[in-house]
Amino acid sequence: MKTIGLIGGMSWESTVTYYQVINQIVAKSLGGLHSAKSILYSVDFQEIESCQANNQWDKSATILIDAAKRLALAGADFIVICTNTMHKVADQIQKAITIPIIHIADVTAKHLLNQNIKSVALLGTKYTMEQDFYKSKLIDKGLNVIIPDEQDRIVINNIIYDELCRGVIKSSSKQAYLTIIEKLVKQGAEGVILGCTEIGLLITQQDCSIPFFDTAFLHAQEAAMLSIS
């Protein structure tokens, strides 16, 4: 079994999902009392969020490079960054280490293509929705990416940072997300990427008939299967 290196804490609420899903899949796949070999480096999200808000991406990259190097030294065979937004600096991190990073957008794109999705809505932080570092991975694979309008992006982003990252789950926020998704479906979305690892804490496939692609689950699943392949 390979050892998974997890860079978590962004937020720790969704890092719990990664740890749980990875171990559930390994246990189901191997049986018995098997669990995943993993090493978690959990950062202080306040530092990372401050870098995001102040456009200090190089500073955040330095923090995560340090985490990745420590995981590599500790014996990790590959790295999983347990957040969508911080894949903005994934290339910088990859250049600083010799073990591979499993990119969350590549994993998500694979599942979209497997289900013959051509046009997909993207929900996430304002950075993930508005900047190109994530969308370009999808577009390069021939996918059409639809993002919410500016006001809806503000609503989505605020719920992520003010509620979900703090473990606050509100029915009103769930309804707000579902209303936004309805608009995106009318614009041609065939599926919805839950492109922030906390969104799956708020809405699930049971809430909507259009296919959801929960990036936290898909990323964790990929890590688990790679570890036992």
Radius of gyration: 17 Å
Number of strand segments: 7
Morphology call: globular
User: What is the fold named in CATH at topology level of the largest domain?
Assistant: Rossmann fold
Residue share in helices?
40-55%
Class of the largest domain, according to the CATH hierarchy? Alpha Beta
Count of domains = 2
Number of helices: 10
Q: Structural class of the secondary elements?
A: alpha/beta
The CA-CA distance between the termini, in Å, is 8 Å
Strand order of the largest sheet: 5-4-6-7
Q: Name the CATH architecture of the largest domain.
A: 3-Layer(aba) Sandwich
Mean pLDDT: 97
N-to-C SSE string, H for helix and E for strand: EHEHHEHHEHHEHHEEH
Percent in strands: 5-15%
Largest pleated sheet: 4 strands, parallel
Q: What ranges have pLDDT less than 50 throughout 5 or more consecutive residues?
A: none
